[in-house]
Design goal:
mainly alpha
């Protein structure tokens, strides 16, 4: 389970963003929470099955890398596309809520580090779990 520590921290941060946001109704928060918990369970279960299928085979066959990489890249979309939609929704609601132009400028400026963190998370997920030597 230690190999999934970074993944579970990412899921926890996504849920923290969603659950502390005032822009979602309680039932939307529940749906998003169920989605990401189910996603984490499915991802970890299938990836463990792939690892067990090729465990003990030396050298590691090409089929393992193909299957593992394909699984991770598909799941990366299921992780990051909903997160992108969630973040865009929060930013739109946040910008519409403030009144002054200066506050809107500052909010737009926070998009820079948010985008960098989003892209870094996407890269690290694909690299960390789907790397193919």
């Amino acid at each position: 389970m230690q190999q999934y520590q970074g993944f579970l921290i990412t899921i926890a941060l996504i849920l923290l963003i969603v659950l502390t946001s005032r822009y979602f109704k309680w039932w939307v928060k529940g749906i998003i929470t169920i989605y990401y918990i189910a996603f984490a369970y499915i991802f970890i279960t299938v990836r463990n099955e792939i690892n067990q299928k090729y465990e003990g085979i030396q050298p590691v066959p090409e089929a393992y890398w193909d299957e593992n990489s394909e699984w991770v890249y598909q799941m990366s979309d299921f992780l990051h596309v909903p997160l992108f939609v969630i973040l865009v929704y929060i930013y739109i609601r946040w910008i519409r809520r403030v009144d002054t132009a200066w506050a809107k400028v500052l909010i737009v400026l926070t998009l820079i580090p948010a985008t960098i963190l989003f892209l870094f998370s996407h890269f690290m997920f694909n690299f960390g779990y789907g790397y193919r030597p």
